[in-house]
Write a structure and sequence with these properties.
The protein is α/β, with parallel strands linked by helices. It contains 7 helices and 3 strands. The chain has a 3-stranded parallel sheet with strand order 1-2-3, with helices on one face. The longest helix is centred in the middle third of the chain and has 14 residues. The chain is globular and about 45 Å long. The two termini are 27 Å apart. 23% of the residues are buried.
Amino acid sequence: LADMDFVERIAEIATSNVIFCVSLHGDNPRVHDTIVNKSGSFEKTEAGIYNLARKGIKIEIRHVITKINYKRLPQMARHIYNYMPFCNHYAFMAMELHGEAVKNADCIMVNSAQYKSELADAALLLERG
């Protein structure tokens, strides 16, 4: 989605019922790129989000909560509020263990009881602005 030519082709066929769900795992490159294990991914993901917005395509930001990013939930909410107010939906999601995540569960899995305070703060930040 960082390729605007590709997004323009999508925009030609996307109906008003189409919403792109984009995973953004952190409010900065260090956190996001660590989680996806790919340097430069944060910048490309954000470029894709902005490209979709420029073409008027609906967007949902999905933020999967892990041991690596849960302490930054309020910062993530601020980032979304400040830089992506055009998005249609924001989802803070608990982790589901599939594929490679199963092998790395000890490094990434976090119990929801551990982040309830940060999640509450993040939700209130998005609600109040």
